[in-house]
Amino acid sequence: MDRSLIVAEPDGAAMRYRILEVLRQYGQSRLAESGQDDQARRRHAQHYLRLAQLVPPILWDDADQRRWLPRCRAERANFDAALHWAAGRAGQTREVGVELACALAPFWEAEGSISEGLTRLEAVLPSARGALRTRVLDKACRFAFRQGDYALAAARIQESAEIKRAEGDELGMAHRNSQLGLYRICQGEPGAGRVLLEQALGITSAHGDEHGTAAANVYLGVGALLNDETDEAQRRVLAGAAVWATAGDQPRLAVCRSALVLVLLERGDLTGARAVAAEVLAIVAGPLRGMPEDAGWLWAAMLLAEAEGRDQAALRLLGAIGAWSQRGHRWIEPLRRRYQPVTDRLLERTDPAVAAALMTEGAAMSPLELAARALASNG
Asked: Which of the listed residues 108, 132, 147 is the one where a domain comes to its end?
């Protein structure tokens, strides 16, 4: 430090040190000359794999995000170097890269790096075998779904389901076919989607798998809503919500109740929609301290605000929806198309300069700020 050979930067209560680029290149050259480059890079990759494996499988609440997002951001170059090195190797060493990509998936999703996450997972998929391949397929389909690439999501989850079928894992196959049913609905194949979901529901019910049954019911509820079957949609969504409420699963409960807001709005029940939306926003602003991985609650709050004539609140939320979509957090496309006329009417009746200012304000707000502001607006 005294001779300006390294740079020190505050890192919480400690310090973080960086070597200057010219010295790093020199050091790499000398390491290669020593014949120990591969050994050093293997230890480096294994170290960062162990770190990545400490990241929770889903970074849904604010506490996890505040703990892990800054740390993973700080190590992004090291993660990238390890992934790049492992990709050029074979055998077990190459598997380190596959495992690292799987472990980093929650970070990429919470960070909003949906395109990067999908690219990384697709890059390691050819090297993944056995149970590790199933993990990559399951994560890749999640990222593809977020991007709205339903064909790729369906292809990946279908392969994963086939692997589970070949293993004799009926329940694992049903879980994946349940997701495939939703993807088929999103692809404009509601009949095929419903068949897959009903089959999955039968298997999960027979196994006493309440969580799998809840997911299938919610997906069937989405399909029913898109088919204008609001009674059926409400029944299905309420069935799923009851399971997640009993389990204390606040993120999935927020997703279910956001869908219920849509159903109630379709039925013209503004009072009911307002009450349920308040519950959703209280969850997001309270225990979850933000919920950036799902745009459903944003749409529910925006549609309610528009229906009640709270145009300023609706426009802020619309701005956030647009910003999240650009970062890869897209809403289910058939639902977006269904409610696009609402946003069109909102923009048509608002002065363009006013609308742009409010949407810019909303785009810059954090999930926690958005939820708290919407909750206050909702009364």
From this structure: 147
How many domains, in total, are found in the chain?
Answer: 4
Which of 217, 226, 283, 277 has the alpha carbon at shortest distance from 253?
283
Q: Which residue type occupies 208?
A: G
- Is beta strand 6-11 parallel, antiparallel or unpaired with respect to 14-19? antiparallel
Query: In terms of residue numbers, what domain contains 280?
Result: 267-379
Same domain for 219 and 163? yes
The tens-digit pLDDT sequence of the chain (379 residues) is: 888 888 998 887 889 998 888 999 999 999 999 999 999 999 999 999 999 999 998 887 677 888 899 999 999 999 999 999 998 887 777 899 999 999 999 999 888 888 899 999 999 999 999 899 999 999 999 999 988 999 999 999 999 999 999 999 999 999 999 999 999 999 999 999 999 999 999 999 999 999 999 999 999 999 999 999 999 999 999 999 999 999 998 889 999 999 999 999 999 999 999 999 999 999 988 887 776 557 899 999 999 999 999 999 999 999 999 998 887 778 999 999 999 999 999 999 999 999 999 999 999 998 889 999 998 887 6
Is residue 257 a part of any domain in this protein?
no
| CA proximity to 103, closest of 75, 145, 66, 62 | 75
